[in-house]
């Protein structure tokens, strides 16, 4: 019997007319979209990219150990050799010149220079004369220091952490944007399903009322015109039903695609309740927005980048100099060990400079352009801040208004449904005209749709405020993932 029951269940489930339903709430749809949608995977990938870019930036300020060289450096050719009398002779050479250099370097963010220590070994094989020589630097310390030049390391240390913070906050915003988008698709399908329910109910009711009206016509209680009006209502309800079925199917496909769901079951969405009413402090919303949003971090980054361009124009258009200095030990010999036997001092000091003397105002023009761009950036940031504040103020006001509107539309929906039920019963008792019944039907449908649309506006406003502030006003805490 148990096996027979299982087979019967499998038969009915696989039967085409048997509709498999999957009930989902708004919170479940939002959670699924955040977890498995393409948009959520893209947000995760962007966060990883941001993380490794910051790690790369941090690595630039840590010691760098490297091994470089040339192995082998073989040459066999005729080369040009200038003779003492000025003539040229072409001599055959056959040699191998190999080099290995082990270096440990450290960047200095404060000055923009680099200090390093290195060890170098060189081997030269002259195959024509069957001779091998070694040259090497057992130890060398050096510094390369730009003078009066733009310090890239110093400015990167100010800007890159802001970019990293901006990227992290953008990840949170992306997930909240997914919640908002999923809410839009959710209510698109919910409205379609409500319209489908209304259409199915209206078709059923109009069919019943038309049959009752046929009976009343035979009794002489209504006119032929009233019967035709009810028949038109039935035809209209049938067309509305077909249109509602198509709209619901399209909306369902959109929602599944956005969630990244391959579930073939039909979705049946719950009508979400509004969140428990909570107070929203406008000043708190502004403070949290400027503390949490990537745009707020971007304001500071843009101002720093504009200032960086001004400093670059000033530094690179004037006196530029570079100091390179090394001190170490070096030696040569016929064997590798000879390099380390009584090595000699090795010193190198070089100061290179460039001083523009006549540029016909080019340097000043570049500096003035950078200053003008900085001023424009400051103005743009100020305008963006004002727009940012206005968006938050508008969204707070809108959400507070929608909290009240949802309650009113819900009450209107209940009243319209009760009024229609009374009108339907009165029509059956021949106590109400067809016109009045039609008005009650329209008011019922409008009130139902208005309630669902009010819920949609409320939840979209709710998630919009979360995006703008990255703050959960229900839990009174910052949003984090």
Q: How would you describe the overall organization of this protein?
A:
- The protein is of the alpha+beta class and 481 residues long.
- Helices cover 60% and strands 22% of the residues.
- Strands 2, 3, 4, 5, 6, 8 and 9 form a seven-stranded antiparallel beta sheet that branches.
- Helix 3 runs antiparallel to helix 4, helix 4 (152-219) runs antiparallel to helix 7 (294-316) and helix 4 runs antiparallel to helix 9.
- The chain is elongated and about 135 Å long.
Notable traits:
481 residues; alpha+beta; seven-stranded antiparallel beta sheet; two-stranded parallel ribbon; 60% helix; 22% strand
Provide a short characterization of the protein structure.
This protein has helices at 2-14, 26-36, 38-59, 152-219, 224-259, 282-292, 294-316, 362-428, 434-469; strands spanning 21-24, 64-70, 74-82, 88-108, 113-126, 131-147, 266-269, 320-333, 344-354, 471-472, 477-478. Helices cover 60% and strands 22% of the residues.
List the helices and strands and how they pair.
Blueprint: H1 2-14, E1 21-24, H2 26-36, H3 38-59, E2 64-70, E3 74-82, E4 88-108, E5 113-126, E6 131-147, H4 152-219, H5 224-259, E7 266-269, H6 282-292, H7 294-316, E8 320-333, E9 344-354, H8 362-428, H9 434-469, E10 471-472, E11 477-478
Parallel strand pairs: 1-7
Antiparallel strand pairs: 2-4, 3-4, 4-5, 5-6, 6-8, 8-9, 10-11
Subcellular location: Cell outer membrane
Pfam families: OEP (PF02321)
Keywords: Cell outer membrane, Membrane, Transmembrane, Transmembrane beta strand, Transport
């Amino acid at each position: 019997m148990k096996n027979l029951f299982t087979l019967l269940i499998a038969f009915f489930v696989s039967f085409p007319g048997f509709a498999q339903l999957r009930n989902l709430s708004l919170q479940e749809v939002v959670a699924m979209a955040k977890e498995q949608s393409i948009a959520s995977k893209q947000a995760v990938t962007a966060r990883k990219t941001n993380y490794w870019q910051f790690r790369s930036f941090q690595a630039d300020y840590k010691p760098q150990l490297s091994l470089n060289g040339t192995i082998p450096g073989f040459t066999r050719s005729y080369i040009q050799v200038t003779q003492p009398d000025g003539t040229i002779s072409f001599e055959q050479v056959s040699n191998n010149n190999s080099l290995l250099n082990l270096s440990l370097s450290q960047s200095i963010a404060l000055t923009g220079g680099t200090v390093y220590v290195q060890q170098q070994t060189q081997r030269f094989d002259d195959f024509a004369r069957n001779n091998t020589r070694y040259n090497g630097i057992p130890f060398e310390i050096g510094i390369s220091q730009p003078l009066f030049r733009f310090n890239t390391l110093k400015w990167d240390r100010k800007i890159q952490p802001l970019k990293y913070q901006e990227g992290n906050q953008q990840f949170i915003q992306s997930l909240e944007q997914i919640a908002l988008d999923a809410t839009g698709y959710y209510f698109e399908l919910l409205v379609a399903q409500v319209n489908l329910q209304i259409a199915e109910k209206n078709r059923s009711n109009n069919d019943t009322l038309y049959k009752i009206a046929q009976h009343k016509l035979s009794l002489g209680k209504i006119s032929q015109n009233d019967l035709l009006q009810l028949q038109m209502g039935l035809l209209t309800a049938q067309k509305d039903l077909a249109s509602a079925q198509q709209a619901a199917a399209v909306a369902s496909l959109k929602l599944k695609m956005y969630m990244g769901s391959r579930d073939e079951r039909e979705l049946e969405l719950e009508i979400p309740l509004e969140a428990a009413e909570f107070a929203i402090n406008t000043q708190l919303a502004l403070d949290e927005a400027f503390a949490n949003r990537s745009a707020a971090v971007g304001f500071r980054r843009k101002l720093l980048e504009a200032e960086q361009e001004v400093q670059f124009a000033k530094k690179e258009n004037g006196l530029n100099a570079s100091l390179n200095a090394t001190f170490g030990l070096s030696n040569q010999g016929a064997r590798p060990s000879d390099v380390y036997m009584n090595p000699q001092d090795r010193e190198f000091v070089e100061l290179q400079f460039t001083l523009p003397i006549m540029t016909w105002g080019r340097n000043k023009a570049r500096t003035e352009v950078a200053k003008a761009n900085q001023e424009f950036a400051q103005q743009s940031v100020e305008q963006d801040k004002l727009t940012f504040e206005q968006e938050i103020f508008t969204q707070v006001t809108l959400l507070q208004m929608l909290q009240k509107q949802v309650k009113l539309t819900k009450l209107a929906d209940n009243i319209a449904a009760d009024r229609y039920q009374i009108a339907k019963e009165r029509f059956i008792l021949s106590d109400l005209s067809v016109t009045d019944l039609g008005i009650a039907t329209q008011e019922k449908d409008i009130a139902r749709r208005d309630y669902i649309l009010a819920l949609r506006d409320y939840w979209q406003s709710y998630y919009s405020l979360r995006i703008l502030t990255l703050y959960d006003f229900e839990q009174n805490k910052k949003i984090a993932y």
